[in-house]
Design brief:
alpha+beta, 6-stranded mixed sheet, 4-stranded mixed sheet, binds zinc ion
């Protein structure tokens, strides 16, 4: 499956450098180093018809010793890349001279317009910047935690426990019944928007078990033959979408109204038409969502379970 938004970063994460404090210090003293500013979880993006990430130099970090430490993202072309959270500043565009040339758009709104490799870098950065913003205190003892390893872990000042950025797996599955697929809609979604069913993987559960449980809970349909197809980082705030297909063993739908407003079977012809343009009965997710790719793979006959 190609064209998954937030995949395909050109950065080498160079994880072996994260514990090399001297190397990180040198990179942050090098004007060639690139720093991606974030403000309230939004990346700095150049304004204009072709949006691109707006990289700053490490000069941005001068006098910010008390601010959140920059996160080392990786290396490309011999140049180190970092992310820096400017959320403590009330007017960063004016303060740092970005007014008129760049802005802080919501990543979800801008991701599809960025070059794919840049959207992937922004996803990596948003995921970790957000984690730091919410993990200043140890969940074990309540004391302060401090950034270490170039921003890839935190250590409690009191009990020394190390904490790492978490990733939350979510299964998203296209349930197939021959030439039909099962789609659902949440109450908040505009009509006639439907998508693949999805839910968080729980503790002590395999990916396959999560698919079976979620489809049974949300739509009352029994499925088997779960196949993994593709994944997508989804940094809102920390998910990894695991795209699957599953084969329906039962057809009757019993919707859990606390999760979905409606679920129904749609034929391949209906779905094919909706992929081209929304129909009165069905609109499907845009290419930004992995659900779009699951649906398209099935319609185009690439799906392993089709
Ligand atoms: Zn602690």
């Amino acid at each position: 499956v190609k064209g998954i938004v937030f995949s395909g970063s050109g950065l080498d994460r160079a994880a072996h450098r994260r514990r090399d404090a001297a190397w990180l210090r040198e990179r942050l003293a090098d004007d060639a180093t690139r720093v991606l500013p974030f403000w309230r979880l939004a990346p700095l993006v150049r304004t204009g018809d072709a949006p691109r990430l707006a990289w700053a130099t490490p000069a941005l970090l001068e006098g910010r010793e008390e601010a959140p430490a920059p996160v080392f993202l990786g290396v490309a072309g011999g140049i180190a890349h970092f992310a820096a959270d400017l959320s403590d500043r009330p007017e960063p565009l004016a303060e740092f001279g970005f007014d008129g040339v760049a802005h802080f758009p919501d990543l979800r709104a801008i991701a599809g317009l960025l070059p794919p490799d840049e959207a992937a870098i922004a996803a990596q950065a948003r995921h970790v910047v957000d984690w730091h913003a919410r993990h200043g205190f140890c969940p074990g003892c309540g004391e302060r935690t401090h950034v270490q390893d170039g921003g890839w872990s935190r250590r409690c000042a009191s009990c020394s426990t190390e904490h790492f950025p978490r990733t939350d797996p979510v299964v998203i599955m296209l349930v197939l019944d021959g030439e039909r697929c099962l789609l659902g809609r949440q109450p908040a979604w505009p009509r006639p928007f439907f998508s693949a069913l999805a839910g968080f993987v729980e503790g002590g559960e395999t990916l396959e078990e999560a698919v079976v449980r979620e489809v049974a809970e949300e739509a009352g349909v029994v499925v088997s033959d779960v196949r993994y197809l593709a994944s997508q980082p989804w940094p809102f705030p920390a998910s990894l979408m695991l795209g699957c297909t599953a084969r329906a063993a039962t057809r009757e739908i019993v919707v859990d109204r606390s999760e979905l407003e409606e679920a129904d079977w749609f034929t391949k012809d209906e779905v094919r038409a909706a992929l081209a343009a929304p129909t009165p009965r069905l609109a499907v997710p845009p290419p930004m969502a992995i659900a779009h790719h699951l649906i398209r793979a099935w319609v185009e006959g690439d799906s392993s379970a089709a």
